[in-house]
Structure prediction request, 256 residues.
Amino acid sequence: MTKADAAKMAAVIVTAYPNYDKFRSHDEVNNYVGLLATMFAADDAAAVGLAVRKHIATSKWPPSIAEIRELMLETTHPEIVPPDLAWAAVSDLLFTLRRGQWDEAKDKLPALIARAVEIVGWKNLYDMHTGEAGSKPGMDRVAFLGQYSPMYDRAKTDAMTPQPITAKITGQQAALPDTSYRLIEGAEELRREKELQLAEQKAENKRQLELAMIRDEEERKARLAAWKAKKERGELDPNSLSAIALKAAEGGQHAQ
Prediction:
């Protein structure tokens, strides 16, 4: 957003709140324009304007920078879902999916919500939801919100911080020795690597099982064909287990 955009935005706000004391001074208005231009320099003017118009429609008092930036989250960061709506989404999935369907549930949730569920444990939440863990009604909600709410607050604060300020903070952190945050990120990265290994192993096990089933079916058909050929040549003892198995297989085929 340029300074010209900021001036237009300030004019709209001043017009909407003509009785606000600080807008009666020309210097105060100029300072306000400069503040808007600085704090929204890296933002899209249309997104800022939409947030300002919503604030004007719903508040009796002029917007602070923080209030405008918070309203902007609705259009610039829709993936940061408020706790009440986040729980509603998780609760719906707990009703519709099963205990072993975390992969399906994860694909239906925004990343931040999925991460909170992952930390608590989908199976743990499911057991709380169904009462299998002997928990009281509502404990699934308490457990989820206890994890998600602070994550939401941090994500919202990070998203509300202007990009140039975030870049400077990140640059300063990069120049410092290893911190606790880096250790935490490292632990999460290890977890992701382990999950990937387990997923790959699970897929390989499934593939091997399918191959084994195919081989077993081919061997079964080969045995039946050999027994049938011996029967046709009169070489198969009608009282043998092979003859009985062949008769059962042929009977099953006829039934189908």
